[in-house]
Write a structure and sequence with these properties.
100 residues, alpha+beta, six-stranded antiparallel sheet, 2 helices, 32% strand, globular
């Protein structure tokens, strides 16, 4: 889902989009020269490292350190949105990939 949202917005989604798991995305992005940090921006892909696979989400809105994300499979097989802290959510601290 997150890879689709990046591509749908007209930004470049590298070949690894949709391949592997969310835990691999920050390292893949850094390796491709794509900035990764803890500062959310609308349109970023937010990554959490919780669980075996991690989780990738699309950033829809930012209000300070609160981030509204859209996602698929947070609840198995379902689309959802939620607003969480970028720092201390139940999902854990997030990393944000700033696709060009």
């Amino acid at each position: 889902y997150a890879a689709f949202k990046v591509a749908q917005s007209g930004r470049h989604m590298p070949y690894w989009g949709g391949v592997g798991n969310a835990r691999q995305w920050p390292g893949n992005a850094i390796g491709a020269g794509i900035p990764v940090d803890r500062n959310p921006q609308v349109g970023d892909v937010a990554i959490t490292m919780g669980g075996y696979y991690g989780h990738a989400m699309h950033v829809e809105a930012v209000n300070g350190r609160m981030v509204t994300v859209s996602q698929y499979n947070f609840v198995a097989g379902a689309y959802s949105m939620m607003t969480v802290s970028a720092d201390n959510s139940a999902l854990g601290a997030m990393q944000f990939i700033h696709f060009p």
